[in-house]
Design a protein that fits this description.
Length: about 325
């Protein structure tokens, strides 16, 4: 059936909003808002069943919204506090140990590698300071972007909670365009939920395999690494950052492995490279299954979005493609 002018307008507005979100670097706000909204949408009906009346349901939704925001904030604070203040295996101890490992690299790494590295910790500090002085503008820009991203996440989460509460109190829209836009939002929300489930499976598999390697395979081979729990926590936290997150976690694991032997560092590097290469295809397969798409379709979507928008394009590709396919299926075009 041919779409009406109002439906066509709602499609164009939805596309403009999504592309504008990427162009204006508001992806973090969008995802934070959708995640909070989805959690509230799933949990609020369970609490609302205990109450009767529209006002009670609105109050139940507001309570769930407050609990979700508080729980997410408390969880993040507790995890960061543990990493920062651990007596023997916290983040400061991990960074200090990494500095010692790099400082003593001559004892474990081959000569053809160490001769290209700074000879001591002091030389590393000098090199870092020199680089920071030469790239001070870029460093300030990165710091500013991190701060802006955190603010976007907070605002996005608050907006998601506010929209969820208001949605439970508003009467259904009767005007055509408003109704059509609500339909677009509902389809996008469903697509986002499907992708979140898929991403949760991928994250669980990635963390589990890394944990098996660090806590089982290496000890079975006689290699015992320190800071295993902290490294897994770092992997879990930075794993939400596409590409950069993998680089950070891989560097930490490989450097700590180098404290034992060059062979352990090389084995860790090979394992992590194979894991993340396999994760790319696993991601396409799992997410494709969640949205009823083939793996190659999801890979192609990631490739196109990365070429168009860079790293943010990879992050939004599964959600945007899931939404596009859902709309096409609703229109019986695929």
């Amino acid at each position: 059936m041919k779409p009406t002018p109002v439906q066509t307008a709602s499609y164009l507005i939805a596309v403009a909003i999504l592309l504008g979100t990427v162009h204006l670097k508001l992806v973090s706000a969008l995802f934070a808002g959708m995640l909070v909204y989805t959690l509230i949408h799933k949990l609020a009906p369970l609490l609302a069943r205990l109450f009767s009346g529209r006002a009670a349901r609105i109050a139940a939704t507001a309570i769930v919204a407050a609990v979700v925001v508080a729980a997410v904030s408390a969880g993040a604070f507790a995890l960061l506090y543990h990493l920062k203040s651990g007596d023997t295996a916290g983040l400061p101890q991990l960074w200090a140990r990494m500095a010692e490992i790099i400082d003593g690299a001559n004892a474990t790494l081959p000569a053809w590698i160490t001769e290209r590295l700074p000879a001591s910790g002091d030389e590393i500090k000098v090199a870092v300071v020199t680089w920071l002085q030469a790239h001070s503008a870029e460093v300030r820009g990165v710091g500013k972007e991190v701060g802006v991203t955190v603010v976007h996440i907070l605002i996005g989460g608050i907006l998601g909670a506010m929209i969820a509460v208001s949605a439970s109190s508003e009467a259904p829209d009767r005007k055509p365009l408003a109704k059509a836009l609500r339909e677009r939002a509902a389809v996008f929300h469903d697509a986002f939920g499907r992708v979140v489930i898929g991403q949760g499976k991928i994250s669980l598999i990635n963390t589990t395999l890394t944990g098996i390697y660090l806590a089982i395979i290496l000890p079975a081979a006689g290699v015992h690494l320190p800071f295993i729990k902290t490294m897994l926590a770092v992997t879990l936290i930075v794993g939400i950052l596409p590409v950069v997150g993998n680089l950070i976690s891989n560097t930490v694991i490989v450097v700590v492995s180098a404290s034992v032997s060059f062979s352990a560092a090389l084995a860790s590097l090979v394992f992590l490279v194979l894991l993340h290469k396999g994760e790319y295809f696993l991601s396409a397969k799992i997410l494709g299954h969640q949205v009823s798409a083939r793996a190659w379709e999801m890979l192609l979507a990631m490739l196109v979005m990365e070429a168009a928008f860079g790293v943010p394009g990879i992050a939004v590709a599964p959600v945007f493609y899931a939404y596009m396919r859902a709309e096409l299926m609703r229109a019986k075009l695929v």
